[in-house]
Amino acid sequence: MRNRIELLAPGGDIDSIKAAILAGANAVYCGIHKFNARNRATNITFEDLNGLLRLAHSKDCQLFLTLNILILESEIPDLIRLLNRLVNTSIDGVIIQDFGLFYLLSRHFKGLNIHASTQLTTHNEGQISFLQALGASRINLSRELSLEEIRSLSRFAHEKQMLSEVFVHGSYCISFSGLCYMSSVHGGNSGNRGRCSQPCRDPYDVTAQGKHFALNLKDNSALTDIQDLAEAGVDSLKIEGRIKKYHYVYTVVESYKNQLQRFYDGKTMSLDKDKLYRVFNRDFSNGYLKGEIGQAMFIDNPRDNSSSHLAKKNGGLGEDAIAYAEQELYEEKGEIRARLRDQMDRMSTDHAPLNMTARGEEGGPLKLDIVTPESAFSVSSKKHLEKGDGLSLDRKELLKRFKAINETEYLIEAVELKDLQPGLLLPFSELTAIKNEILLKLRKGQKHMIPVKFPILKEVLPPALPPALSLLISSENDLEFCDQTSAEIYFQLPDAPSQGLDRLIDFFRKNRHISPWFPSVLIGEEYDAALRFLREVNPEHLVSDNTGIAFEAHRTGIPWTAGPRLNLANSYSLLCLQEQFSCSGAFLSNELGKKQIRGIKRPGDFKLYYSIYHPIDVMTSRQCLFQGVSGCAKLRIDEDCLPSCHKTATLVNRDRTSFFIEKTGSNYNRIYNEKNFMNLEIVKDYSGLFSGFLIDLRHIKTATRLTTDPLGLIELFEKLLKGKTGAQHELKQMIQNTTSSQYSQGI
Fold first, then answer.
1. What is the pTM of this model?
2. 488 with 541: CB under 8 angstroms?
3. Which of 192, 316, 453, 742 is most exposed, with the fewest beta carbons within 10 Å of its own?
C-alpha cells in the first residue's frame, strides 16, 4: 500500500470550498477577514467558519485558515480577538508568515497547529530548523526548487517531525515568494499583505526579443510528476487558486485526485492534461521541478489560454476557430456549474442544532440533558440550586450564560425548562463550569481556552547616543574609502558563495572589522558553503536576510542582526527574534509607511535599524529574466549561469517607468527600481526609536545620480544623523532622482 498524500485545495469562497470537497480534496485552505494573502478573493466570515468546519469534517476533509500576511502594529488587538475565537474552534491549522504571529501563537495560543507559508520562501535546512523552533508543524517549500532539492529538504523535515508541502498547480510567481516588492513600490499594494497587483504580468514596451509581456510565466502544473513527488517524500500537494471560481477548483482538484488514485493503484501516470487546459490557464510548465529553468517557461500573454489551446487542438487558430472554442468551453462550464450547483445546495454549512433540557429543584443539582445530531449526554452542577432575589435560571439567562456554545459548530436551537423549578439560582462560577464541561464534550475532549488579554509591551527608553551610520558595500575596492570612516561596514555576500569561497574566507579573516551580510536565498550547496564560511571565519557580528543563517548564528553564539528582507513589521516580530534566536538587532521593513511604524516598540537591549538610502531590489528570481528582454543564446539555465553570467537590460512599462535588470556573477537575476530609495525625514520623525541608519553604497545601476564621491556622501549622512543644519538640503542636492514612496504610502 503506497503512502497517502494530502491533496490540498484552495477555497476562496463557500462555493469553492464545497466544490473542493466534492472533488475529493483531503484539505482546503481559505481566508478570513483581512489577515490573508488573497484579499481579492471573496473569503469567508467567522460566522461561516464553524458550519464549514462541520461540513468539511463530516466529509473527512481538513480546513486550514490563511493568516499569511505581515501584521501591522495597529492590527495586533484585532488579531488577538480573532485568535481568541479561533482557538476554540476545530480548525485544523493556520498558515502564517509573520514572526510576530509565530510569537503570539507559540506563547498564548498553543492549541493551533502552525503551517509556515510559502511567503517565507523556505529552501534550506537551516530555515526548516528555524521554523521548527517557532512551532511550525509543516513547511511549504519554495516553488523554485527541483525534485532533488525537494527530496533532500523533505527528508530533513521528516527528521524534524515536520511535514513538507509543495505547490503543484496554478500561478507561478517570477520572484521568490516574500521577496517581491514591485507592487509595493508602485502603488503600495504589497504582496506581503495579499494585495499584489501583479505588475510582472503587465505589458511593457516591446523588447528586443519582440515580447510585450517579458516577465510573464506560464502556470505551474505537476500533474505528470505526482509519482516523483511522492517518491521525494512530499506530504501535501497544494493547488493555487483562491481567486478562482468553483468550477475551476472542482476541475483541477478532480484531475489531481484521479491521478493520485492511479498512483495508489500502481498504474502508470496519465499524461493527459486536457481537462486542465479547459479551465483558466496560461499554458503549463513544470520547469522548476525538472530543473529546466528558461525560455520554455515564459508565455507572451497573461490572459486565459484555454480557448486558444482548444482551437489549436481542433485544427486552427483563426477568429472563427477561437470563437467556436470559446462557445464550447462556455457551454461546458455551464454544464459543470449546473451539476455542481445541485450537489452543493445539498451540502449544508449550517451549525448543527443543539437541544437542551434543564431539570432540577431547590436543594438539588442543576441537570442539563444535551442532544445533538451525533450524541446525547448529561451534565450536572456540583453545587445545589437555591432560591434568591437575583436573576433566576430562565431561558434568557441560560442562553446568555451558554452563548459560547454558539461559537462552536453547534447552535442552541431549543431550551426546555418544564422540569426546572422556577425562581432558582446557581453561582456564576458554577454555570461557567457547566458550560466548560458541555464544550469539552462537544469538542471531544479539547479544552475550552480562556480568552487571552492583549499583552501590553513595555516602553524602552531611547538610546543615549545619536543613531550610528552604517554602510553596505560589495566590492573589495571600496575598502579604501571605508577605512576613512568610523561607520560600521557591512559586506554583501553573493547568492552563490561557493564560487571563490576560499578567497572570500581569506578576505574576511584579514578584515575582521567588516561584518558579512548574508543574502535572502541560499539553496543547496550554496547554503553549505555559507555554513563553511561561518565556521571558518567566525565573524564577530553578521547581518542575515536568511533565517537559515540566522538559526546557525544563534546555534553557534554569533551575534546577528536581522536584515530588512526578513520583512519585520511589528514589535512582536522583534521580540520573537530576540527571545527565540538571541537576535541582537533588526532592520524594520522598508515597506512600512510613516504611520505604520508608529507604536512599534524596540525591546530592551535590542538595536533597531532602518535603511535610509539604497537601490530598491524589487524582485529576486531564479529565472533568467533576459530570455524575453535582451535574449540569451541558451534556452535554459545551466550550471555556469549562476556563477558566471554578467548582464544588464532595461524594461519600460506603459507608465514610462524603467526597471533595471541585473545579473552579476554568483548572484541571481534581480530587477531594480528606476529610482533609489531615500528617506531623510524618518531621522526626525522617529527620533529615539532607531539605533542606527544604513546607506547602501553598492555599485548598482539605476537612474539615481550622485554629484559627490562616497566619502562626501558619508560625511553628509553623518551630519544628518548629528542634526546638523542644512545636511538634509545638501543631500537632496547631491543625490538626485530618488523616491520615498514606500514611506509615504505604506502597505
1. 0.96
2. no
3. 453
